[in-house]
What does this fold into?
Amino acid sequence: MRTAKSLRSCLSVYGFARYALAVVAVVIGILLRVLLVEQVGELPTFITFYPAVMIAAVIGGLGPGLLATALAALAADYWFISPPGFGEVSAAGAVALGLFSAMGVLMSLVAALYASARFKVAAYAKEVQLHESEERFRLFMDNSPTIAWVKDEMGCYIYLSRAFEKRFGARLADWYGKTDAELWLPEIAAEFRANDLAVLAAGQPMQVTEETLTSDGERCSWLTTKFPFCDAAGHRFVAGIGLDITEHKAAQEALRQSREDLDRAQEVGQIGWWRMDTQRNVLTWSNESYRIFGIPLGTPLTYETFLETVHPEERACVDARWIASLRGEPYDIEHRIIARGQVKWVREKAYLEFDTEGKLLGGFGITQDITERKHAEEALRQAKMQLEQRVAERTQELQQALEQLKNEFVVREKIERESERLRHELAHVSRMATMGELTSALAHELKQPLAAILYNAQAAQRLLASDSMQVEEMQEILQDIVDDDVRARDVIDRLRTFTRKDELTKVPVNLNDLIGESVKLLYQEFLIRGVSIETHLCPELPAASGDRVQLQQVMLNLTFNAADAMAGRSDGERKILISTALDNPTTVRVSITDNGDGIDPDLLAQIFEPFHTTKPQGMGMGLAICRTIISAHNGGLWAENNSGCGATFHITLPVAEESIGAGVN
Ligand code: ADP
It folds into this structure.
C-alpha cells in the first residue's frame, strides 16, 4: 500500500518529464534515422526507434514506452515507409509497422513491469531500513537511563519510553492518550503542564527541574529538557527527556549541609582555612578566614594581602617563617594581626605540597582566632603574679604573726605558770584557812590522846612505885600509851599532809577512803556544831585520777559550806549526806547533799565566781578554788537545789586509767 502510494507520488513528480523524455527519444530516433537513410537505405526502418522506445519504457515506464511506440510508428509511417505520408502502406511496411508496434508495446510492458518491481524492491528496502531504525531508536530509548516522552498540543501522551514502566509502574498502553492531570497528583500535573506550555510558547528548548512520585511513593527529582517540534502536517508537539537527579540532588544537599556544618564549625571554633594553588596562582580563603582578617568577602587575595594585616612588629618574623616553610620547614606560628584596626591573635598552621624535585605545588592551611585564649592567658598570668605577690605578702604576714604568736605563747606560758603558782598559793592559803576553822576541833582531838597518854603514864608510874606491880597490867598500860600516841601521830600526819604545799600530782585516789578521812577530820568540829554526816558509798567504786590533797580540800570545803547552809536549822535537822556513784565506766561522781536553805536560783551560776559570798565573814573564794581544782582534774562541779529543801553539790572525776573496768571494795 505504502509502496503504491510512493510510486504514485513518484509518478506525479516525474510524470511530465517521463513523457517529455519519450518524445525527445523518438525525435532523436527520427533524426538518427534520417541521418542513417543514406548508409542503411530504407531498411531497416525502425532501427533507431527501438532504442528510443526502450529508453522511454525503461526510464519512463509503460506510458512513455507506449507513447514513444506510437510516435515512432507514426513517424516511420509518415517519413520512412513508402509511400511517404499517412495513408496507404505497402504490405511489408504494414507488417514491419505492426511488428514494431507489437515490439514497442511488449518492451513498454516489460519495462513497466521492471520499473514496478524496482520500485517495490526499493520501497521494501526503505521500509526495512525504517523498521530497523525504529527498532534501534526503541532500544536506544529503552536502555537509556533517561525517560522520554512526547505529548501533543493538548498535553496527551503520544509516546513514552519504557523507562516509565520501570520508574512509575505504569502500563504504557494505559498512559497513551492521557494528560498529566489524569495521571499525576494535581500539583505535579499543574507544574508539568505549565512547563509544557512555556516551552510551546517560547518555541525553543528549556531545561527545568521537576519532581514526581515513584511507584514506591518516594519523591524523585528530574532534570528535564523539554523542546517543541512540528510534524509535516504542522501539528505541534512537546517532547521531553528527563534525567533522574534524585541522588545527585541528595548528594548536593548533603554537600551543602556539610559545607554549612563546616562553616558553622569554623565560626564556632573561629578557625578559617586557606588553599593555595601555585599552578593557577590562586589563593582561596574560607569565609571565616575573611572574617578573622577583617577583609571584605570576595576580595582578591595574594600573600601580600595577608602580610599587610600582620602586626608591624611581627611582620618580618612571620615573613621569614613563611619563606622558611617554602623550603620545607614546618609553619606553625602564633602572631598578632590588625583586623579593621583591632589587634587580634591568630595561630597559623600550613601544610605545603612539593613535587619530587622540591617545587612547591600548593598548600593548605588553617588560621585560628586565639585572641580570647591569649587574653585569658594574659589575665591568668596577671592573676598568677598577683596571687604569688599576695602569697608572698601573706607568708610574710603569717611569719610575723607566728613570731608574735610565739612571743605571746611564751608570755602566756609565763602567765599560766604564774597563775598556776598563784592558784597553788591560793589553794594553800585556803587550806590554811580551813585549818584555822578546824583548830579547836583538832586541839580537842590531840588533847584526848595526849591526856590519855598522860593518864596512862601516870598510872604506870604509880604501878612501878607499888609493890604489887603486875607485868601484864604494865604491858596493857604501855600498849594504851602506844595506841594513843599512834592516834595523835595520825592526827598530826593528816594535818601535815593537808597543809603541805605540793604541786598537782595525779594518782589513783580511792574516793570512798578520802571521804572517810575527811569525815574523821571534821568529826570533832561537826560534833560541836551539831551536824551529823551520813555516807552512802558505792561499794565497787573505781579509783579516780587526781591529787589526793587537793581533792580532800574540795571535799572539806563543800562539806563546811553544807554545814554553814544549815546553821539556821534546829538540832537534829542539820544532816549532811555524802554519796558516791559510778556515772559511767570512765566517770565517778561524789554528791554532797544538805537540807539547808538552798541557793537562790538567780545566783546558781554566780556562786562559783570568785569573791561571791552571802556570808558576813565569807571570802567567796572557796567554790572558785574548788572549780579550778576540779577543772584541772578534767572533771565537773555544779550545784542544784533539792526538790525539798537544801542543795546538792556534784563532783565528777575521770576514772584512773588503771582502774577502768575494775571495781574497788
Ligand atoms: P564563802 O563560803 O566564803 O562564802 P564560797 O565560795 O565557799 O565562799 O561560797 C560562796 C557562796 O555560795 C556562799 O556565800 C553561799 O552563799 C553559797 N553556798 C555555798 N555552798 C552552799 C550550800 N551548801 N547551800 C547554800 N548556799 C551555798
